[in-house]
Amino acid sequence: FGAMALKADESVKLFLSIGLDEKTATTTINNPKVTANLTAVIHEAGVTDGCDRTTGNLLYTVATKHHSNLLLHRPTLFSYIVSSKIKTPAQLDAAVSFLDNHAAEDFKLDEFEEACGVGVEVSVEDIEKAAGEVFEENKKTISEQRYRTNVGQLLGHVRKSLPWADPKIVKDVIDRKMYELLGERTAADNEKPTKKKEKKEKPAAKAEEKKAAVEATPEPSEEELNPYSIFPQPEQNLMVHTEVFYSDGSVLKCNNKKEVLDKHLKVTGGKVYTRFPPEPNGYLHIGHAKAMFVDFGLAKERGGCCYLRYDDTNPEAEKKEYINHIEEIVNWMGWEPFKITYTSDYFQELYDLAVELIRRGHAYVDHQFTPHPHAGDKWCIYPSYDFAHCTVDSLENITHSLCTLEFETRRASYYWLLHSLDLYMPYVWEYSRLNITNTVMSKRKLNYIVTNNHVDGWDDPRLLTLAGLRRRGVTPTAINAFVRGMGITRSDGSMIHVSRLEHHIREEFNKTAPRTMVVLNPLKVVITNLESDKVMELDAKRWPDAQNDDPSAFYKVPFSGVVYIDQSDFRMKDSKDYYGLAPGKSVLLRYIEKDTSTLFLQGVLHWVAESSPGKEPIKVEVRLFEKLFNSENPAELNDDWLTDINPHSKVVLSDAYAVSILKDAAVGDRFQFERLGYFAVDKDSEPGKLVFNRTVTLRDSYGKGGK
């Protein structure tokens, strides 16, 4: 698909001829997509020999802001712009809105002209009158605030009554009336407002102020409340989806015909149909969690259906193991497929369509004599991704085909193929992919470090595969909250700091993980002023805000003359910034009542005691995980990315001590080890030897600089 192309200097010359300033023209040619769009618009509008600046600016707006819309009716729009019947940005916006609602339909020109103010002339006298009324209504406020008055609001009031007024003239009239009312600016007008030092208020006044501040908090946007609000309804799928440029200069404009859409809506009942289409060539990672949130989430929010469709067109890379894993992990993430399908289920239909495409002179065939993990050895040819993806979307009556931005370049081939086969066309929308620091998200790289034993399998807790996150102790709730916080935007996929994910994990675990005590590197401490054979049972809190009258909020912990503290909590040499134990220094032990006669003690240590004289506490293994890669973006290192693996990303402590309540913990149970972090029981646990994975530390760095 060859778009029109001009040399850079020719493009600049062309753009200058329509009235663009030199800076805008030279900036535009640095963006190949905008350059191609604007070049096509200039040719379609028939102004290759130039035009006035007003017309040129409107055409530039169409090329940069409205390029994907209204393609069917662009000749009409351009004729109105070039003839100056549409001559203001407000008129253009109104025209675009009208045509967008009539994307594949005929419409009456008189209705179009009325909608966008064609022929409506707004005189300076009209603007003067409207502005005078606005100033009269707001005279008191303007006099008080003087040149700090929000002029934008005044402009908005005038434009509301005169929507087709020239905005430049409106601004000039407002500025003149401000001067007539207020006179010259004074030095005070140019000063920044200073905050007055207020007297200390009474608590009641502060409460009122806090209440007022809460009430003044801006309402969240509709998109923040509902990230799926950006997507159109199925019955609106008549818009022109894209345009395909041919090397001969012709342009194909792709959209559904009304009878095709009506047939589709009859089959679907007007419901939203989406699909989550992973290729079964590896384990799913956290990027797929975002895709699930988009695909399954939209269908759920609209009361529709979402397929789990295995995109199994490459048998050399696919395994039954991956197919089983994907279905299981989708369910674990909390999503329920409407139906599970395989692209290979449609091989016969795809074959028939391929034959038809060849008959029409539009296709070729690729041979593989490879057996298929789902379809067996029935087929010796397999469809390419570009052929299968769009056709199966159409065959399954998908309403919204949603994918990440790297597939945007395939949009033309997607619609060209459906158009060439006279098939229904879904609405396609691309969103930014999820990129997280200190890891790799490429399936190829993940497969490499798994198969070459740089990690301990696809579910290694250091990986951001969903299986690895689950084993680490992360819940679907935390993952989905993190993904929802990203939104469904088309912004360039910038790196998201891993601390942002950790923030959501802590948010949940702080409310759901019971507290307990474990000592990672035990140091034996003998309490000399306690009888050696005495064992007491103390009440320890499962939850920090536990009420004394709630027995379930406490657990019993033995306390004896021999306790174990962590080695890091003892030093031979004390210092002011150290709150642990040292010679000649006293500390508190958690849950031991303080003697009121003692001095103030800053250090409070966690501990584990012998449950009876000479009997060691429960021994457990604890695995501490750090970031797998030292660099935030190891992919930038190209061929040297493996050298960036952190050799200290996994530390195993085999001789940690735990309080007795943990002896009955089951695989997947989660706890907060006081002062240490949040931990989960690993699947390697055996009777008498529990293994805990550290899910996340207690400290939250997201609020302190995490992106």
From TrEMBL:
<keyword id="KW-0547">Nucleotide-binding</keyword>
<feature type="domain" description="Glutamyl/glutaminyl-tRNA synthetase class Ib catalytic">
    <location>
        <begin position="369"/>
        <end position="510"/>
    </location>
</feature>
<dbReference type="InterPro" id="IPR042558">
    <property type="entry name" value="Gln-tRNA-synth_Ib_RNA-bd_N_1"/>
</dbReference>
<dbReference type="InterPro" id="IPR011035">
    <property type="entry name" value="Ribosomal_bL25/Gln-tRNA_synth"/>
</dbReference>
<dbReference type="Pfam" id="PF03950">
    <property type="entry name" value="tRNA-synt_1c_C"/>
</dbReference>
<dbReference type="InterPro" id="IPR020059">
    <property type="entry name" value="Glu/Gln-tRNA-synth_Ib_codon-bd"/>
</dbReference>
<keyword id="KW-0648">Protein biosynthesis</keyword>
<protein>
    <recommendedName>
        <fullName>glutamine--tRNA ligase</fullName>
        <ecNumber>6.1.1.18</ecNumber>
    </recommendedName>
</protein>
<dbReference type="Pfam" id="PF20974">
    <property type="entry name" value="tRNA-synt_1c_C2"/>
</dbReference>
<dbReference type="InterPro" id="IPR001412">
    <property type="entry name" value="aa-tRNA-synth_I_CS"/>
</dbReference>
<keyword id="KW-0436">Ligase</keyword>
<dbReference type="InterPro" id="IPR050132">
    <property type="entry name" value="Gln/Glu-tRNA_Ligase"/>
</dbReference>
<keyword id="KW-0030">Aminoacyl-tRNA synthetase</keyword>
<dbReference type="Pfam" id="PF00749">
    <property type="entry name" value="tRNA-synt_1c"/>
</dbReference>
<dbReference type="InterPro" id="IPR020056">
    <property type="entry name" value="Rbsml_bL25/Gln-tRNA_synth_N"/>
</dbReference>
<dbReference type="InterPro" id="IPR007639">
    <property type="entry name" value="Gln-tRNA-synth_Ib_RNA-bd_N"/>
</dbReference>
<feature type="domain" description="Glutamyl/glutaminyl-tRNA synthetase class Ib anti-codon binding">
    <location>
        <begin position="513"/>
        <end position="591"/>
    </location>
</feature>
<feature type="domain" description="Glutaminyl-tRNA synthetase class Ib non-specific RNA-binding">
    <location>
        <begin position="170"/>
        <end position="249"/>
    </location>
</feature>
<dbReference type="InterPro" id="IPR020058">
    <property type="entry name" value="Glu/Gln-tRNA-synth_Ib_cat-dom"/>
</dbReference>
<keyword id="KW-0067">ATP-binding</keyword>
<feature type="domain" description="Glutaminyl-tRNA synthetase class Ib non-specific RNA-binding">
    <location>
        <begin position="10"/>
        <end position="167"/>
    </location>
</feature>
<dbReference type="InterPro" id="IPR007638">
    <property type="entry name" value="Gln-tRNA-synth_Ib_RNA-bd_2"/>
</dbReference>
<comment type="similarity">
    <text>Belongs to the class-I aminoacyl-tRNA synthetase family.</text>
</comment>
<dbReference type="InterPro" id="IPR014729">
    <property type="entry name" value="Rossmann-like_a/b/a_fold"/>
</dbReference>
<dbReference type="InterPro" id="IPR042559">
    <property type="entry name" value="Gln-tRNA-synth_Ib_RNA-bd_N_2"/>
</dbReference>
<feature type="domain" description="tRNA synthetases class I (E and Q) anti-codon binding">
    <location>
        <begin position="604"/>
        <end position="682"/>
    </location>
</feature>
<feature type="region of interest" description="Disordered">
    <location>
        <begin position="185"/>
        <end position="228"/>
    </location>
</feature>
<dbReference type="Pfam" id="PF04558">
    <property type="entry name" value="tRNA_synt_1c_R1"/>
</dbReference>
<feature type="domain" description="Glutamyl/glutaminyl-tRNA synthetase class Ib catalytic">
    <location>
        <begin position="271"/>
        <end position="368"/>
    </location>
</feature>
<feature type="compositionally biased region" description="Basic and acidic residues">
    <location>
        <begin position="200"/>
        <end position="213"/>
    </location>
</feature>
<dbReference type="InterPro" id="IPR049437">
    <property type="entry name" value="tRNA-synt_1c_C2"/>
</dbReference>
<dbReference type="Pfam" id="PF04557">
    <property type="entry name" value="tRNA_synt_1c_R2"/>
</dbReference>
